[in-house]
Amino acid sequence: MEQLNKVKDGDALREFELKFLSRKGELSELMRGLKDVGVELKKELGEMANEIKKELIENFEEVKNNFTSSAGVKISDVSLPGKKFSDGHLNPISIIQQELEDLFTSLGFMIEDGPELESDYFNFTALNLPPLHPARDMQDTFYVDLKNSNGEYDLLMRTQTSPVQVRAMLKYGAPLKMVSTGRVFRNEATDARHEHSFYQFEGIMVGKDINFANLKSLLETVGKELFGPETELRMRPKFYPFVEPGNNGEYTCFLCKGKGCRVCKHTGWLEIVGAGLVHPDVLRAGGLDPEVYSGLAFGFGLNRLAMLKYNINDVRLFNGGDIRFLEQF
Ligand code: DAH
User: For residue 97, how far is its CA from the centre of ligand 1 (angstroms)?
Assistant: First the structure.
């Protein structure tokens, strides 16, 4: 102990360690010497020797620690390679979301959020889908098991981001240019192409004289941003209750450039976006007069976009939480 107290620098510390604590040091020597004494004595001395050893090592460690921190003696080896901190990775959905948000904010659109737990009214009725409307069956809905004071089930997990259109019109009025991204929920049996929750990107633009040409040019701009400058758009009629006329926007396949391949199922076109001119009933639900205002609206499925763009073959990977999947982006 006395010797230990005299230790003043790194060299002396190492010398002490060598002299007393190493395999050939005095302490080991002492322990080895015990084999020559009688059994009784051996037991007694052995216990004592172990006590001393323990105490000595503890004290040694303490001196070593104090010493390292106060005198700044580096016991660590600075020539060892450093620890590498790996970067986190964005989910491919977030990458596409950010790309689209950048585009739309550059076009003067605001970004708005909406609730995932939505009312039946905003998710359906306000979007021209009153109770018992057959088109409600197009979306298998998770209703929430909670009745309101009228005994109705009026809460659900939103099946689409379209309710944010009406919420935004009520909040901001017209003119309005708004996009919204978010998670939506459907009671799907999951497989490689179906998931119970996925992401949509929604947009609405309302003002005076907004027309179909505005919608077409906007969707063309989006297509070129997503899939490159040669991308073409075709629009085919499709029924969505909240738009009139409603249509499906299809882009030339980015892989075969329209010739036909496995990705576009040999049609040359990819169905990407639901869109149309906002139905007068939806404008009314948003508190706007359809005689004065008109609007365009569109909605993308972000999972589908990401699957096409990054060649992902199973939609369940997005929610799977497997780090190896995310590390690829
Ligand atoms: N909400 C539709 C869906 O989930 C997508 C959609 C279609 C959004 C047409 C729109 C639209 O805004 O105008 O299938």
Answer: 17
Rounded Cα–Cα distance for residues 226 and 243 (Å): 24
Specify the pTM.
Answer: 0.75
Output the pLDDT for position 5: 75
For residue 36, the surrounding DSSP H or E stretch is: none
> pLDDT tens digits, residue range 115-137?
999 999 999 999 999 998 988 88
pLDDT exceeds 70 at position 94: yes
* Both structure tokens of 136: 């409600």
Task: Answer whether 1's CB lies under 8 Å from 59's CB.
Answer: yes
Task: Give the pLDDT of residue 103.
Answer: 97
Q: What are the respective helix, strand and coil percentages of the chain, to the nearest 5?
A: 40, 20, 40
Atom of ligand 1 nearest to the CA of 296: 13
SS3 for 82-140 is: CCCCCCCCCCHHHHHHHHHHHHHHHCCCEECCCCCEEEHHHHCHHHCCCCCCHHHHHCC
Left, alpha or beta for 224 (phi > 0: left; psi -120 to 50: alpha)?
alpha
Task: For ligand 1, say whether the CB of 160 is within 6 Å of any of its atoms.
Answer: yes
